[in-house]
Amino acid sequence: MAQFTRLNGLRRLLGGLLSNHQPPPPSRFFLAYNSSSSSIFDDGGSGTSNAPPLTMPKLFVSGLSRMTTDEKLREAFSPFGRLLEAKVITDRVTGRSKGFGFVRYATVEEASSAREGMNAKFLDGWVIFVDPAKPREPRSPPPPPSSAPPPSEEEAGFRANKTIGWCG
């Protein structure tokens, strides 16, 4: 009971001191987060984008949840047009998502509308970012195996370190 009385007294004291205090206006982040749009990076509703125009109908999607699957990605991007491919890139060993993927549309216009509609939106609880996919860079071929003769029976297996002197 004594604690309750102390709290009421403290509340009255602070209430008198803070009665003229106005709370600060909500931040832009808070407004964008709580708006009807699910984007946290809303540009104020101007609707214009400073992103360069697309030249390919393939999009790179980053920021994916580790639990996002190809089907969830397809479901999220299908309202924007005819989706030809939706692929989440997975780790070869674990089979889990690496956090990015690609979507490909039939036309550049559909890809552009998907980019505008899905960039900085939530998917599986994570904010995703949609950018134009870059063409794959060609890899150099692996070097040919060396033409050294195969090791003899004496050389096969473990080898001793032939370093002479102290290395430190």
From TrEMBL:
Source organism of this protein record: Spirodela intermedia
PROSITE patterns: RRM
Compositional bias of kind Pro residues: 140-151
Keyword annotations of the record: RNA-binding
RRM domain residues: 57-135
PANTHER family: NUCLEOLAR PROTEIN 8, RNA-BINDING (RRM_RBD_RNP MOTIFS) FAMILY PROTEIN
Domain of life: Eukaryota
Claim: RNA-binding is one of the keywords in the record: yes
Record's protein name: RRM domain-containing protein
InterPro entries the UniProt entry points to: Nucleotide-bd_a/b_plait_sf (IPR012677), RBD_domain_sf (IPR035979), RRM_dom (IPR000504)
GO molecular function: RNA binding
Stretches the record annotates as Disordered: 133-168
Keyword Cell wall biogenesis/degradation: no
